[in-house]
Design a protein that fits this description.
Blueprint lengths: L3 E7 L6 E2 L4 E7 L7 E3 L1 H8 L10 E4 L14 E11 L2 E8 L4 H11 L5 E16 L2 E17 L7 H9 L4 H33 L1 H8 L4 H8 L8 H20 L3
Parallel strand pairs: 4-9, 5-9
Antiparallel strand pairs: 1-3, 1-8, 2-3, 3-7, 5-6, 6-7, 8-9
Helix pairs in contact: 5-7
């Protein structure tokens, strides 16, 4: 399963941006999301400070990228775990930017001037229970495994599924997600089908050349295989070799079905 995500934002407190130490205070609120799920502040706090997992490498990455095509370190900075606090149903923690690095400098400019304000937290739920709140069923997650925290421009577009429901007549978001998954599978299948078709075409175009690997025309080569004075390969042998090639093409074809 893909990790779930919660969002954190720059704190509105005074002096939440420290220009001297190049760090910014973020607040992770304990709120019920649009899927009627909530991760407790205690769960977030405990996961942040878990020295066996996240706290062992509290990196902040750019846009959930674990590696960059350039080969440069995908590091914006690191989370100062020792500053994490539970305050009024929220978690507060400072992010220290990697000043002197390309990403650290660029993201510091955007965040310190609050052009960007959010980070996205990827996690897996480990323990949860169901509660009734104001007449609604809420899934309350009390233990998580925190995987990573990334700087992001915006969170997920909460209105996107609603627009898709209107366009395609979906009755609820679960149905929408199911249909989207099916659509993705069709697209992936089509891409694979095109690649296999291309491979089959390339093999077919080089069929005669490939046959030479199985059907030597040279009498000298035939004699070296069958013994001195033997005839060239008889038609039956050629047919067997061609059958081998046909089987290869059949396997490729079947892999698409």
């Amino acid at each position: 399963m893909e990790p779930k995500h919660i969002k954190a934002f720059i704190s509105e407190k005074e002096n939440s941006v420290d220009e001297v130490t190049h760090r910014i205070l973020f607040i992770i609120p304990e709120i019920v999301d649009r899927d009627d799920e909530i991760v407790t502040a205690q769960a977030i706090y405990d996961a942040l400070r878990d020295k066996e997992t996240f706290a062992a490498n509290p990196i902040c990455m750019p846009c959930h990228q674990h590696r960059l095509d350039s080969g440069k370190p995908p590091c914006v900075g690191h989370w100062d775990i020792d500053t994490a606090q539970l305050i009024n149903g929220s978690v507060e923690v400072w992010l220290i930017f990697a000043i002197g690095t390309e990403l650290g400098d660029e993201y510091w400019k955007c965040y310190s001037q609050k052009h960007m304000r959010a980070v996205s937290i990827g996690y897996h739920a480990r323990e949860w229970h169901r509660e009734e709140r104001d007449g609604n069923g809420i899934d309350v997650t009390t233990k998580i495994e925190l995987y990573e925290i990334s700087c992001v421009a915006v969170g997920a577009n909460q209105g996107a599924l609603s627009k898709l429901k209107t366009l395609f007549g979906w009755t609820d978001e679960k149905e929408a997600l199911k249909d989207i998954e099916s659509l993705i599978q069709v697209i992936v299948s089509k891409l694979l089908d095109d690649k296999v078709s291309k491979l089959q075409t390339e093999i077919s175009e080089q069929f005669d050349e490939i046959k030479l690997l199985f059907i030597p025309d040279s009498d000298k080569f035939a004699e070296s295989l069958l013994g001195q004075g033997s005839e060239s390969l008889v038609p039956a042998d050629k047919n067997n070799a061609e059958n081998v090639l046909q089987q290869i093409l059949k396997i490729i074809k079947n892999s698409r079905e």
